[in-house]
Structure formats: structure tokens, C-alpha cells
Amino acid sequence: MSAPPARSARPTYRGRFAPSPTGPLHFGSLVAALASCCDARSAGGEWLVRIEDVDEPRTRPGAEGEILATLERYGFAWEGPVVRQSSRTELYRAALGQLVATGHAYACACTRRELESAPLGAGGERVYPGTCRDGIPPGRAARTQRSWRIRVGREPGCTMVGYRDRLQGPQAQDLARDVGDFVVMRADGLFAYQLAVVVDDAAQGITDIVRGADLCASTPRQIFLQRCLGYPTPSYLHLPVAINTDGLKLSKQTGAPPLPRDPVPALLAAWDFLQQPCLTGSEQPATTAEFWAAATAAWTPARLPPVAMLPAHPPVPERGPV
Question: What CATH fold (topology level) applies to the domain 90-185?
Fold first, then answer.
């Protein structure tokens, strides 16, 4: 298998929803899935589902089946087969080989503990100090485990990556200052999310990405990789992230409850969270089919709240299995 080719002409809208199979879908997941699907459908485009299980140790047995069953129960319909990152290792390996051959990637023998004293960037991440950038130091050369990092450059002002988000507006990040040379393959041999998502989006012809604002900080790294690999850059729209009463992002780690079995109230709650035109009253949808017909016609991206976070009030799930 080889890395996907670059595309010159912009094709028809192609969006995607890419959950990780670490547990059941929750309200925050529903918000992202709903927005990405409505955005694609209202544009007359295609919507795909991809299972992002590149981090295999975090994958929970049975979670993928639960996720797909929930999407179907909630009336989501997608084009083509579901793609799984765990079956695409050769694509990632080919992309890494290209990065190494062009001088964009290099091996690193630093351990996590050795990087604990590295300075923090603007986003709170450790900025890699470049220890192995010009070759692995003699004292670390005997180590067998190596990660691979992408070289982002040293010249001031030459590593600024900017883009215009459809909702959040102009965004920019100085990769050298805020991130440093970042990992594209971990020392345990697993490919990093940043590389996998870039390769997958290019291979699937994704033109438009709608996802949570917590991934805004990752987007400049992904755009940088797209440029290194000769891939096109999709359009981005980063939605407000649903947070709980403690101000934490709704996630499996923060105890977000799974979606309830009855889909319509949850879909309406997610619709209201996104501040979309009212679908209630005498025309309130009673079925998922009615909801999707109304939502696709009424979807208005200009009404989305241009903030990074919003408190969520998801419906309480029923007792029993999901």
C-alpha cells in the first residue's frame, strides 16, 4: 500500500465522524456527530464514519459495536464501509517513510521522564527541546526503542501555521515555540493520532472537518503534516465543546453517561445546544426520520455559538443497557 495522492481540484463535500472505541457515545459525541452530519447533508455531500482505534491499548472490547448500533438507532446514515485505523498501518508506515526520505522526520531516543523538565508551550504542552534533532546523542544510542518526530524548523517566524476556521475565525500557532518537533510514531511502535488522522482524511478525500474546539490546537500540526506530505488541506469548523457542571469536557474519563435509548429527545437537546433554529412546537419531530428531515433543511452554521466551551444539559439516560 502507498500513501494517498494529493488532489488538485476540490471535490464534492465529504465529511466524517471519527469516534474512538474507548466506550459508548455520550452527549458530547452526539453534538459532534450531529453537526458534522447536518453540515454534510445540507451541502448535498457525503458523510463517512471512521473508527479511530490507532491507540490500541485504549480500545475497549465491544465499544465499536455499541457506537455503530447507537448511530444507527439515532438515524445516522453514512456512505461506504466503516474504516478502522487498526487496519491501515501500512498506509501510515508509507507516509512515515516519505517523511523520513524527505528529511521531515527523524528518530528520537528520549524518554518521557527526560522530557518532564522541558518548557511548557502556550497550550500547556511540553515543547520538545530538540535533543535528537541532529542525531541521537552517544549516551542514548544504545536504546532500542525509538519514537519518530516531525522536524518543524528553527527559524523564528518560519513555523507559524495559520488557517481560517469557519466558526472560530483566524487561528495560528507557532509550532517551534508552542510544540516543538512532535511525535508521529511512538516508541512502542504505535502511530500517533496526528499522522493517522492526516493520512486517513487524505485517503478518504475528506474536504470538510467539523469537530470539537478542543482539537483546535492540533489542527496546525495536521496542516503542517499535510504540507509535508503534499496533501490538500480540508476546511475546518470547530464546535463548542460540551462541559459538565465542574467545567470539564464531557468524556468517558469525566463520567459522561451514555446516550439514552430514546433518540429524539437527545437529538433535540444536541440541536438546542448548537443553537439551531427551533424545531419544537406543533412541528416537533416525533421520530428520527422526522428529526433528520427537519434538521437537514434547517441547519444554519451561522447560528453556531463561536465559543470554545458551553455547559451541557443532556437528557438523563434510562436505566438498563444501552
Answer: Glutamyl-tRNA Synthetase; domain 3 (3.90.800)
